[in-house]
């Protein structure tokens, strides 16, 4: 039987297990990336594990989320990261050089390689045929130490593209269409593999917009085959020699198929406040817009900003609207500046920003109260922009530019005298590389830690009893932005868990952290897709620090579920009736001897609430059970190392 492209790359990197859906596999990781807000923990854990050098072909540390350095704590984090990259042998990308996914795709992403990154949008280079997966920081640490990465073999879904995009429909509309059809949990446990005759019409950067935002579907990864478009893009990056042709076999079998006819697509928009609340732009036309932002790792490339510049050339941003362009990389800014487009945009009324994540997580350009903000980003979870009750819409750069011109949501097909800009790649990506420091150019060889950089929190070995209050009962689709928001006031404590934990779940209930800390243990209850969104392991670390021992949810998002194991919190699945019956404030007891049950492979646990008993399920591999029993991945990895098999390549 033929293989899918996903299977081919996995097979090439397989060190443990078999490629059977649902089975745990261990794969070798070629490249890792980390960024400033998850990276400090990555390196602190690297240090705590006693590792002394990165073992992957490429390890890259980017500084991208908080580049304005509003507080010395941010700058101290960056200085620590530079020192860690220098000491342990990673590339270091200076603050302002760009968003990790953009800089990585420009410099390192390559067909057929595997990439693990401590950021949920790591799958971006899937558009170049790289199998890229987002994970919690400690999983990246361990992979960087040379050990395999373990996941459940996902289903591989064939997304068959037919036809060609009509004028004004873009790659962003392809992924918005998938979100409209599948929802934010439609991709959980799946890798989306794009095939079909429509693929060849999409340039590599367009493909990367699609693979980037596959994360919003909850997908493990998204990948395109490679072809002339891939080779062409790599050649323009002066990396043509890294091209490898990769296609699925003709008789490959997929677990499912979705067909998207590109020629049926039209400009789409995700309404507040979930990326799957997608409708045609024409349905919400006329809504007044106070702010437009073009940028982010989804649409911050040179090829995304150029159409905006062309649409604004000789025109003006509407007087009631503020337009901000925040490129994904300094390379994009530099090239657009050299070609005169930055000046053109500035003359039209654009506020041109440094290359940063910034506004995407509410750092800068927070919308005014009661106003509409249109962004080319990938997430619009409520409050993420920095103000509660925000109205953030997600759309393509072309739709954003149309709104900037008209001051209201506008279907760009209805613009007078504005030509569809189309997609244009530069002859060569010739931005300078000054801000990417190679391991050979390292400036430090010792770690430099500022006063805000704390220790990695540890939990004791799993005990026999779990009993305590339900401190919070939450609805479906609780995001990691609810659990640990990433706005500036909170983000600056990412390296200081004691302080950061004070903000845990504050967006749901600001009395939670205090209550949990003062209680002796306790649990959380949630609906479907608990922990969707980012990879931040702090969303498990902080509840652990506050004493939370188990989360009872109807289902979990993939990365967050792994993070719960990694920090010794038992993730138990409950059915809808059980969810309905349990209330906040109830006393819950797990009747089984928890340590015994976890280590013996028991799947069903009895949960007692008052006089009632319910069943909760622990669906976990042997390895995950061992991690839980040890009190988390750091303790487990140290145990393994003492036993001789720690963060080192698997035996076989
Ligand atoms: C995000 O888009 O939510 C982030 C901020 O990039 C996170 C990483 C983080 O929380 O540091 C992600 O996507 O993993
Ligand atoms: Fe940065 Fe936003 Fe992309 Fe996350 S989604 S990496 S915050 S630009």
UniProtKB/TrEMBL annotation:
Q: In this protein, which residues make up the domain named Aconitase A/isopropylmalate dehydratase small subunit swivel? A: 514-576
What are the protein's UniProt keywords? Iron, Iron-sulfur, Lyase, Metal-binding
Supply the InterPro entries for this chain: Acnase/IPM_dHydase_lsu_aba_1/3, Acoase/IPM_deHydtase_lsu_aba, Aconitase/3IPM_dehydase_swvl, Aconitase/IPM_isomerase, Aconitase_4Fe-4S_BS, Aconitase_4Fe-4S_dom, Aconitase_put, AconitaseA/IPMdHydase_ssu_swvl
* SUPFAM superfamilies hit by this protein: Aconitase iron-sulfur domain, LeuD/IlvD-like
Q: Which residues form the Aconitase/3-isopropylmalate dehydratase large subunit alpha/beta/alpha domain?
A: 7-407
Give a GO biological-process term: tricarboxylic acid cycle
Q: State one Pfam family annotation.
A: Aconitase
Tree of life domain: Archaea
Q: Which Gene3D superfamilies match?
A: Aconitase, domain 3, Aconitase, domain 4
Q: Which GO terms describe its molecular function?
A: 4 iron, 4 sulfur cluster binding; aconitate hydratase activity; metal ion binding
Q: Tell whether Iron-sulfur is among the UniProt keywords.
A: yes
Its EC number is: 4.2.1.3
Entries under PANTHER family matching the protein: ACONITATE HYDRATASE B
NCBIfam families in the record? acon_putative, PRK07229.1
What name does UniProt use for this protein? Aconitate hydratase
Q: What is the lineage of its organism?
A: Archaea, Methanobacteriati, Methanobacteriota, Stenosarchaea group, Halobacteria
């Amino acid at each position: 039987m033929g293989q899918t492209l996903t299977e081919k790359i996995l097979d090439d990197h397989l060190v443990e297990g078999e490629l059977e859906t649902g089975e745990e596999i261990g794969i070798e990781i070629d490249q890792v990336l980390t960024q400033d807000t998850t990276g400090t923990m990555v390196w602190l854990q690297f240090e705590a594990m006693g590792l002394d050098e990165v073992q992957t072909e490429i390890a890259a540390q980017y500084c991208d989320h908080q580049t304005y350095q509003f507080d010395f704590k941010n700058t101290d984090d960056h200085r620590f990261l530079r020192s860690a990259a220098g000491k342990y042998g990673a590339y270091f990308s200076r603050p302002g050089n760009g968003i990790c996914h953009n800089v990585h795709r420009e410099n390192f992403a390559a067909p057929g390689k595997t990439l693990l990154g401590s950021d949920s949008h790591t799958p971006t280079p899937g558009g170049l045929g790289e199998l890229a997966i987002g994970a919690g920081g400690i999983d990246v640490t361990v992979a960087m130490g040379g050990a395999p990465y373990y996941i459940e073999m996902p289903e591989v879904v064939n997304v068959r593209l037919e036809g060609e995009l009509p004028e004004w429909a873009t790659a962003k509309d392809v992924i918005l269409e998938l979100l409209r059809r599948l929802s934010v949990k439609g991709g959980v446990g799946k890798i989306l593999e794009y095939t079909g005759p429509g693929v060849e019409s999409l340039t590599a950067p367009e493909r990367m917009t699609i693979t980037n935002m596959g994360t919003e579907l909850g997908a493990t990864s998204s990948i395109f085959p490679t072809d002339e478009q891939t080779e062409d893009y790599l050649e323009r990056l002066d990396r043509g020699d890294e091209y490898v042709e990769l296609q699925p076999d003709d008789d490959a079998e997929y677990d499912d198929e979705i067909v998207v006819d590109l020629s049926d697509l039209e400009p789409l928009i995700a309404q507040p406040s979930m990326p799957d609340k997608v409708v045609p732009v024409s349905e919400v036309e006329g809504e007044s817009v106070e702010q437009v932002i073009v940028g982010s790792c989804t649409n911050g490339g040179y090829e995304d900003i150029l159409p905006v510049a062309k649409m604004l050339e000789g025109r003006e941003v509407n007087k009631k609207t503020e337009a901000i362009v925040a490129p994904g990389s300094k390379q994009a800014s530099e090239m657009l500046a050299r070609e005169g487009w930055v000046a053109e945009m500035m003359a039209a009324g654009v506020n041109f920003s440094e290359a940063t994540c910034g506004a995407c997580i509410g750092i800068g350009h927070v919308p005014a109260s009661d106003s509409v903000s249109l962004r080319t980003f990938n997430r619009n979870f409520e409050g993420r922009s920095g103000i509660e009750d925000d109205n953030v819409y997600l759309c393509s750069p072309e739709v954003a530019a149309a709104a900037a011109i008209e001051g209201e949501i506008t279907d760009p097909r209805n613009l007078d005298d504005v030509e569809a800009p189309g997609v244009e790649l530069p002859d060569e990506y010739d931005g300078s590389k000054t801000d990417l420091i190679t391991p050979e150019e390292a400036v430090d060889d010792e770690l430099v830690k500022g006063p805000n950089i704390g220790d990695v929190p540890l939990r004791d070995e799993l005990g026999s009893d779990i009993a305590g209050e339900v401190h919070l009962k939450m609805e479906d689709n609780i995001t990691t932005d609810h659990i640990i928001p990433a706005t500036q006031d909170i983000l600056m404590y990412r390296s200081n868990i004691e302080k950061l934990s004070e903000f845990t779940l504050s967006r749901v209930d600001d009395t939670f952290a205090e209550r949990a800390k003062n209680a002796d243990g306790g649990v959380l209850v949630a609906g479907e897709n608990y922990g969707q969104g980012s990879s931040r392991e702090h969303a498990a670390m902080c509840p652990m620090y506050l004493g939370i021992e188990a989360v009872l949810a109807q289902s979990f998002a993939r990365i967050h579920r792994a993070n719960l194991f990694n920090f010794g919190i038992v993730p138990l699945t409950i059915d809808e009736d059980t969810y309905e019956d349990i209330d906040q404030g109830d006393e819950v007891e797990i009747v089984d001897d928890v340590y015994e049950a976890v280590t013996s492979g028991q799947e069903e646990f009895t949960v007692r609430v008052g006089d009632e008993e319910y069943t909760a399920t622990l669906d976990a591999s042997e390895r995950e059970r061992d991690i839980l029993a040890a009190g988390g991945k750091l303790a487990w990895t140290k145990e393994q190392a003492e036993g001789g098999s720690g963060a080192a390549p698997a035996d076989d």
